[in-house]
Design goal:
Blueprint (H helix, E strand, L loop, with lengths): L8 H32 L17 E9 L12 E12 L5 E14 L2 E12 L6 E8 L15 E13 L5 E4 L2 E7 L4 E6 L2
Antiparallel strand pairs: 1-2, 2-3, 3-4, 5-6, 6-7, 6-8, 8-9
Length: 195
């Protein structure tokens, strides 16, 4: 014997209304419980961001050595190389919001530096970040032309200023500092901080 189970449409509507009513009653209580439990939980860096593109993110530093054409070194005596370093700031989505570069071209012969030239520049500003200028250096002149020539080692450092303002009119500042040192035997190195 087969039995057929049929429900009236009114019973289905009543069931939907009951479920909605229960959810409306329980949701505010659940939200309050979640707020209270958030107070007990540790905060994460992303939770403290006013704007994840501006005040949160990561600093990345990269450096390398390369050899350019002889003309790049003004046909100086000796063996020549170029050392570069960049300080990069990335937001939480890992997009670049700014970069700050320095490079030094130098030549050496017989344990002494025979040529030195420094360049520095900002790049790739995005998401509201802007370059505010070079704010520091250990060089008297822009390119540090001739710095350390005739000696075994020298360095050139530079610092730049970057600014971004969040929608709440709060401004954030970063001051990346990059440094390159070179030697009369061809050795070199670089460091960076502050991005």
């Amino acid at each position: 014997m087969e039995t057929e189970n049929r429900h009236s449409p009114a019973l289905g509507v009543a069931l939907v209304v009951a479920v909605v009513a229960v959810l409306l009653v329980l949701m505010p209580g659940a939200a309050r419980a979640a707020e209270q439990s958030d107070l007990a939980q540790p905060s994460y860096p992303a939770d403290a961001c006013d704007d994840p593109n501006i005040d949160c993110g990561t600093a990345v530093f990269e450096t390398d050595v390369l050899t350019e054409s002889w003309d790049a070194y003004e046909r100086s005596k000796g063996t020549c190389r170029t050392r570069w370093v960049r300080a990069t700031r990335k937001n939480l989505a890992w997009f670049v919001v700014f970069r700050y570069y320095e490079q030094v071209r130098w030549c050496w012969k017989d344990g002494k530096i025979t040529y030195f030239w420094r360049d520095r520049w900002p790049a790739d500003t995005a998401f509201g970040w802007s370059f505010q200028g070079h704010i520091g250096s250990n060089c008297v002149y822009e390119h540090c032309s001739g710095r350390g020539v005739g000696t075994y080692s020298t360095d050139a450092w530079t610092q730049g200023g970057f600014r971004a303002c969040a929608p709440k009119l709060i401004c954030y500042y970063k001051y990346p500092l990059v440094d390159i040192w070179v030697h009369g035997d061809g050795g070199s190195g670089a460091s960076a901080s502050g991005a």
